[in-house]
Amino acid sequence: MGTLRDGVMKRGNTWSFVIRVTDERTGVSKPKWAGGFATEAAAKEARDSARVAARQGVYVDRSRITVTQYLGDWLDAHAMEIKPATLSTYRYLVTH
After folding, report:
1. Whole-model pTM?
2. CA-CA distance, 88 to 96, in Å (whole number)?
C-alpha cells in the first residue's frame, strides 16, 4: 500500500484519491474514495474536480449512482436547453 499525500495514493498499479464530503441531510463529513486512475496526475485532477463539486454541493459519489439515474438527472437539468422532440427521444433512449 502506498502513502497518502495530499489526498492521493498509489494502490497496486493504479492511483486513488480521497476527499471529505458533507452529507446534506445530516451535516456529517465523511471520506469518499475513488480509484482506478492510471497516473498520479489523473488522480490529482479528478480529486481537484471532486473537491470543487463537493464545495458546490454537486458531488456525485460515482459508486452510488447508475448511468440511468445520472442521465435522467442531466436531462432534467438541461431540459430547457433541448428541443422538446429531442428531449423526448433522449428520455426514451435512457429508459429503454
Report:
1. 0.58
2. 12
